[in-house]
Amino acid sequence: MMKKYIYKLIIFILLSIGFSLPACFAKGRGTTGANFLKIGVGARPLGMGGAFVAVADDANTIWWNPAGVATTKHKEMTLMHNEMGEDIRYQFLAYNQPVGKLRGGLGGSISYLSVSNIQGYSPGGTKTKKLRTYDLGISLCYGLRILPSVSGGINFKFINEKLAHKKDSTYAFDIGGLWKTPLSGLQLGFNIQNLGGGLKFIQERSSLPLNGKLGCAYEFKFFNAQSIVAVDVNIPVDYSVFVNGGVECKIYNLIALRAGFKSKDDLSSGLRLGIGIGGKNLVIDYSWLSRGDFEDSHRVSATLRFGREYEESMIEKDIKEHFERGKKYFYNGQILKAHREFKNILLVSPGHKGARDFMSRIEVSVEEVEVAKDIANFFSLGEKYYKKGDLISARAMFEDIIALNPDHQGAKDYINRIEQRFDEVVDSIFARGVSYYEQANYVKALVEMEKVLALNPNHQEVKEYVTLIENKQRELEKIKLALKKKQEEKRRNRKISTYLKKGLTYYQRKQWTKAIKSFNEVLVLTPDHKVALEHTVICYYEQGLILYGEDKLLEALHTFNNVLRLNPEHEQAQEQILRINEECKEKAEEYNRKGLVEYTRGNLKEAIEAWENALLFNPDLETAQRNLERARKEIKK
Q1: 401 compared with 575, residue with greater pLDDT
Q2: Cα dist. 477→8, 454, 467, 552 in Å?
Q3: Measured distance CA(197)–CA(557) in Å, rounded
Q4: CA angle at residue 301 from 295 to 307, to 5 degrees?
Q5: What is the per-residue DSSP string for 147-168?
Q6: Which residues are bridge partners to 133 per DSSP?
Q7: For the residues of 429-464, what is the DSSP string, one character each?
């Protein structure tokens, strides 16, 4: 067994040899290009002070350690926005997922740094227009599980940088490794970042900011809160060695509190703080960094986990948590609690070997003295529940005892007494329900009967009463609906009577428009109302005659058409419509001739107006239509 772990350690050390590469090529400050590659990503890692190379357990691992992609158990996406101050913004998007056929996982990321409102200057020092610069990084990552506890990864990068009017691109890659040590919760990791070419803008080529990271992370329980302590050592090519450290503490798997530091920070004390809020699928993270005389830096990121693999991993995680709790209870002598945990596991995963083994051991252990003491404690608790009148909780405790020791006579006696008490309570509640039923208070009666069924689901007489109550409630509902319908009918008839009376009054006064409005209100409520229909027809006809007498031909035509809409056989309205149509044609001819006169005088607008009027009176007058089209074309020239 020891040889196996030594073998894994040797592999991990060989992978870590490359960690010394940055020191081999060490340069001074300010000698590298594409320095946006130094900016850490993810509000969660940054809230931990940037100590993440050995944690590497979410989509941010693409940047921090590509080997972490090999251990991913589900599809995951993260998006970060970083307000760095001074019009500098940094965005990062990453996605990874497990790929079983490749014995690991794949991922990709996009990072974008933009700086706006940079004042430009000419060679002579004169101000020019505002300039804008950006840095773009696109990466593809592959992580491989070399051994069950050792994984490696490589991250290929395309880098593009624009400075004012100059652009250049290059390629680079990162190499990382992770080792889950035999010590539970301890993990080691390394990452060599930005191996590759450089960028050239004018004459000299600037190398990339090569950096080596080596870190360790320890995961443990702190007052039942899942916690991580992590430390990273960085050896950059253009800077002295510095250390990042951080902690994370998850409370109820809903809130994560984070804090961290950076040993060498020219702009601040090095303190970082962060918080994460969310559930299993979505987490929102925030981190804060003080930057001395500059604006504070704020990072916000959102991480989304999804897919079938994620759901399965959550089930596996829940099973693992129940199993660990069950083991803890078992070895602490809390046999009943352990029994419940392993029982819950077997309900979800009946073939779980560990849970089945412990259940077998529990069945044997119930005969031991320690278990007897534990049962005695639960027996005492059951008695307390019984004395308080909490019969349901008391019965649950005694039934759990019998599940472990079927011959426990004391638990059996209490269960018999509880059943008798239940019968008394059931009879009392049932009598109260019957009383409510006889008083026709069916709502309260149903509530009481449902209480009885909660205690005794097989109570046949109660079931019969429930059926009777439901039938009575349906009958009452029908009566209520009938009364409601009758009331609505009365209200409708009152409205009809009111509108009809008003309409007849207006009719007698020959106020045709108001009369029509009132009669139409009647017809909305009852479309076949004979009196309203007859009087509406008369009102429309009389109104049409008035309009015709005022030479309002089109309005009169519309009004007589309303007469025919209500009474298609109305001969007088038909005659009026024929007469008006003839007069409309004559009017149209007059307007057409007027248009020709204005057209010959060169008055195109007046001609167009005349022909438009002609078509209002006779839309089928082709000569007016042609003349209008010709005039409109000419007026556009």
Answers
A1: 575
A2: 76, 26, 15, 58
A3: 87
A4: 175
A5: ETTEEEEEEEEEEEEEETTEEE
A6: 115, 163
A7: HHHHHHHHHHTT-HHHHHHHHHHHHHH-TT-HHHHH
CA distance 570 to 584: 21
> Could you tell me what percent of the chain has a pLDDT over 70?
88
Distances (CA, A) of 119 to 87, 124, 134, 623: 12, 14, 15, 69
Question: Which tokens hold the place of 459?
Answer: 């109570």
Q: Stretch 308-331: mean pLDDT, rounded?
A: 76
Q: Is 480 helix (H, G, I), strand (E, B) or coil?
A: helix
Q: How many CA atoms lie within 13 A of 637 on its CB side?
A: 6
Assigned token pair, 233:
């050592």
Q: Mean pLDDT in the chain? A: 85
Which tokens hold the place of 221?
């329980």
Categorize the per-residue pLDDT at 141 as very low, low, confident or very high, splitting at 50, 70 and 90.
very high
What confidence tier does 14 reach under pLDDT thresholds 50, 70, 90? Answer: very low
The pairing of strands 225-236 and 211-222 is antiparallel
List the structure tokens of 516. Answer: 């029509």
Name 221's bridge partners.
226
Nearest to 343 by CA among 396, 397, 400: 400
Which pLDDT value is given to residue 344? 84
Interatomic CA distance for residues 122 and 124, integer angstroms? 5
Half-sphere exposure of 408 (CA within 13 A, CB side): 23
Structure tokens at 146: 């070399």
Torsion sign, CA atoms 60, 63, 68, 72? positive
Task: With beta carbons less than 8 A apart as the criterion, state whether 94 and 109 touch.
Answer: yes
Query: In the structure encoding, which two tokens stand for residue 80, read together?
Result: 């970060």
Q: pLDDT tens for residues 190-237? A: 999 999 878 876 667 778 889 999 999 999 988 878 899 999 999 998
Q: Is the pLDDT of residue 370 over 70?
A: no
CA-based nearest residue to 285, from 270, 299, 272, 296: 299
pLDDT of residue 31: 66
The phi, psi pair for 250, rounded to 5°, reads: -95, 130
3-state class of 573 per DSSP? helix
B/e letters for 167-181, b = 16+ CB within 10 Å, e = fewer, are ebebebbbbbbbbbb
* Residue the block writes with tokens 């340069």: 27
Dihedral (C-alpha) 588, 591, 596, 599: value to the nearest 10 degrees?
-130
The DSSP code sequence of 551-562 is T-HHHHHHHHHH
